[in-house]
């Protein structure tokens, strides 16, 4: 039985449909009208009208006129006798830009990583997408394997605790380098850029806290169910402001400003020597160091003085480590 639609497609919808319909037919190679109608959720007669329209479409040749090979062509016998669509000649489609082998490899590697996550195990859609990327690349993509990191293993354990509603225990070292054992009620997992975070009720702090997954170790999923915390409101965003936050004025390259959107104290920007001067709100100076290191040459700390001094001292300490390794005069071994 063919699919039915209460109202016909409007003009904008028809264009979107046709742009999807031709690649669909080329991929399927042979498809009957009812199957195509069910796939797109429209009536069988609309599919037949679209096929007739495609058969009158093409790309004019060098003379500006249409020759037989400049138009789409279908197997009319199959279409009229059996209601089956077969495109026997198509134009222009092969001229569409394709991904390079390197681009396809990068995307496939990302999909492999997603496929390895517990919630995507055995995902047919991800597998099909990887096959399409491989087939559609301009050359054969390089074979890549994405190795599981320690953070990936931790994420699997955390997801197990969240899904089972059980408490989680782990060793945690915060941004200040202070470590300790934590027992938490896991609430949800969030990501920020390349980092993963667990949002959980911490029984040590007796409040909702964010824990960076790569700073967690020795994770144990407890048999104890999580407690109910109706009086605790789980924030919608990963980071929230507090009274202990401080403001830092920085000059940032315009192209890097979107990367700092989560830290902006307000929308005020002033252009200074080709850069944008903005104010960031951060929880501690250690976060500022990490932010500057992640955008080398794109962010300059303007104030306050203690923030400049902290970042400068941190950078000088890092540079001194390279100097000790490279300067023979500073080595305990005699020169040769």
From TrEMBL:
It holds the Pfam family HTH_PafC. It comes from the Bacteria. Residues 155-220 form the WYL domain. Residues 246-317 form the WCX domain. Residues 13-134 form the PafC HTH domain. This is Helix-turn-helix transcriptional regulator. It comes from Agromyces lapidis.
């Amino acid at each position: 039985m063919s699919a039915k639609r209460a109202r016909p497609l409007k003009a904008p919808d028809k264009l979107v449909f046709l742009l999807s319909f031709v690649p669909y037919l080329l991929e399927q190679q042979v498809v009957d009208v009812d199957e195509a109608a069910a796939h797109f959720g429209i009536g069988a007669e609309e599919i037949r009208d679209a096929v007739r329209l495609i058969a009158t479409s093409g790309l004019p040749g060098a003379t500006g006129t249409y020759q037989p090979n400049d138009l789409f062509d279908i197997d009319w016998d199959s279409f009229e006798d059996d209601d089956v669509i077969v495109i026997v000649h198509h134009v222009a489609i092969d001229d569409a830009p394709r991904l390079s082998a390197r681009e396809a490899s990068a995307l496939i590697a990302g999909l492999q990583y997603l496929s390895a996550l517990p919630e995507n195990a055995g995902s047919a859609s991800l597998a099909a997408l990887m096959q399409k990327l491989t087939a559609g690349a301009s050359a054969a993509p390089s074979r890549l394997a994405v190795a599981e990191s320690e953070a990936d293993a931790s994420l699997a354990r955390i997801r197990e605790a969240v899904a089972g509603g059980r408490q989680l225990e782990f060793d945690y070292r915060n941004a200040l380098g202070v470590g300790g054992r934590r027992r938490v009620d896991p609430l949800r997992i969030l990501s920020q850029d390349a980092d993963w975070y667990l949002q959980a009720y911490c029984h040590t702090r007796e409040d909702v806290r964010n824990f960076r997954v790569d700073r967690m170790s020795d994770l144990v999923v407890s048999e104890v169910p999580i407690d109910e915390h109706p009086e605790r409101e789980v924030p919608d965003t990963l980071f929230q402001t507090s009274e202990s936050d401080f403001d830092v004025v920085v000059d940032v390259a315009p192209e890097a400003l979107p990367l700092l959107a989560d830290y902006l104290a307000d929308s005020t920007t002033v252009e200074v020597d080709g850069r944008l001067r903005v104010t960031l709100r951060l929880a501690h100076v250690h976060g500022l160091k990490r932010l500057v290191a992640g955008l080398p040459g794109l962010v300059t700390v303007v104030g306050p003085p203690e923030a400049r001094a902290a970042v400068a001292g941190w950078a000088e300490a890092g540079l001194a480590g390279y100097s000790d390794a490279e300067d023979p005069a500073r080595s305990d071994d005699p020169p040769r």
